[in-house]
Amino acid sequence: MNKHFGIQAQANWLKGQGFRYNSPTNIQNYMLDSLYQINESNKITAFFQYYNYFMADPGSLGIAAYNQNRFQNNRPNNNKSGRAKRWGAVYQNFFGDTDKIGGDFTFSYYGHDMSRDFQFDSNFLNVNTNPKLGPVYTDQNYAGFFIFDHLRRYIMNAFEPNLNLVVNTSKVKQTFNVGMRFMTMDMYFRLDQSTCEKTDIINGVCHMPPFVLSKKPSNNQNLFNNYTAVWLSDKIELFDSKLVITPGIRYTFLNYNNKEPEKHDFSVWNITKKRQNEWSPGLNIGYKPMENWIWYANYRRSFIPPQHTMLGITRTNYNQIFNEIEVGQRYSYKNLLSFNTNYFVIFANRYYAGGYSPQPINARSQGVELELYYAPIRGLQFHVAYTYIDARITSNADDIAYYFTGIVNKPFDIKGKRLPYVSPNQFIFDMMYTYKHTTFGISSYFYSRAYSSMLNQAKSQTVCLPLNPEYTGGLEYGCNSVGLLPLYFVLNVQVSSVLWQSGRHKITGSLQINNLFNMKYYFRGIGTSPTGREPAPGRSITAYLNYEF
């Protein structure tokens, strides 16, 4: 608008079908950014965003259905929707002279009001196809079948002052960073359910009744949490910045307040309070023996706070602690070559590994990362990366044998087992060539086979059995799938070009083919496909046209 004020507005819409049948998608996103440059030393930025979406979530298939047609949707009741309002403002002040003593101070305020609705049915954990064993996962016409909506609302507000102070002398340059964050998070949990009764079944088809609010106390909870974090770090640069040492520490105060009705009539509410504190130290060391070569060693401690879900088997009431160490080097030669190597090891304490293994474990994940960038001629660049990961359980723990009945019929110790869903070998290859106004690109990635359960069994097997609804959000029947997930290699190609340009006006276009060889592979996870096979996208073609004015 002028030298002091600026505003930017953005809007985008996405509407169509996913790659699975009957999977509509509708996304709307609106963003507004503003800038007030008070003077050279002071400015204020602010933003507001509104986001709204709906999408079907076809989830997993049984093996026979996957082999028949992996794009079909056998879970028509699975869908997700949500709305979000995000806002924030930052005041920033620059002071002093960073060649001597100077820096900047920021004060940030931000928040959001988000609501979401995840809808599933009582076949969520089920891929059974044999009616003699229990409910068939594609059957929705039996008494007791239900659809439930997990309604959530999250209101967050936070403020954060932060100071960067540079003290520069002839021998040492130090950059101090000190700050704090206070955040409140109010969460409201509700559950609506529609249950098929015998009287709802007419000519073998269940006509689902309207949704009603579940009055079970555990399905109606309000959580009023807040945390305060303070931190301090000092970046020390010695010998003309050849040696950089950065120690730092962060301390977090966590306060949880869980409000839950005592009875189904909501007349009396119980409040449970919990207090936890965690410290998170860190240390970074970097050394440059020459201008284009750096060696580094880093350490940091972090944590994941307790996770609350409707499924008791995926709920954690403890902090998951991680200690991470990495050592590596980065070497570059002009603009032609860059070679990076890195060794990392992560020690996890009280870690939730997923699946039907609810107890916390200790684990160690270590590996090596190699990465090369090479530009032999102008306009041409290659990128190659390889990662090896060895992620294993280091504590003695017996998994719950009941969930593996029919696969193994006795308790088994999971110490030394590989963590599920971690591919030990991962490879990336990219190439990009630009000639005049046209760019050609290739990107590809390879992931080796990975176990899908703590059992670490290579053979694929699925067992289905009754479940305790107290731990599964009301689900009374489900399955457990084990075995190696398949390796996969995906190659994508793209060409983009400036089709027309006049002054600041420009038209660009691109054509992209993803999964060029139509590689067939599947996933298995926690959120959408705990059992069975969730198909990955097949080959797709995307055409893009953009007009800039």
UniProtKB/TrEMBL annotation:
InterPro entries: Beta-barrel_TonB (IPR000531), Beta-barrel_TonB_sf (IPR036942), TonB-dep_rcpt-like (IPR039426). The keyword Transferase does not apply. GO terms for cellular component: cell outer membrane. It is a multi-pass membrane protein. It is found in: Cell outer membrane. It holds the Pfam family TonB_dep_Rec_b-barrel. One of its GO terms (biological process) is siderophore-iron import into cell. Keywords: Cell outer membrane, Membrane, TonB box, Transmembrane, Transmembrane beta strand, Transport. Residues 38-494 form the TonB-dependent receptor-like beta-barrel domain. This is Iron(III) dicitrate transport protein. It comes from Helicobacter pylori Shi169. The lineage of its organism: Bacteria, Pseudomonadati, Campylobacterota, Epsilonproteobacteria, Campylobacterales.
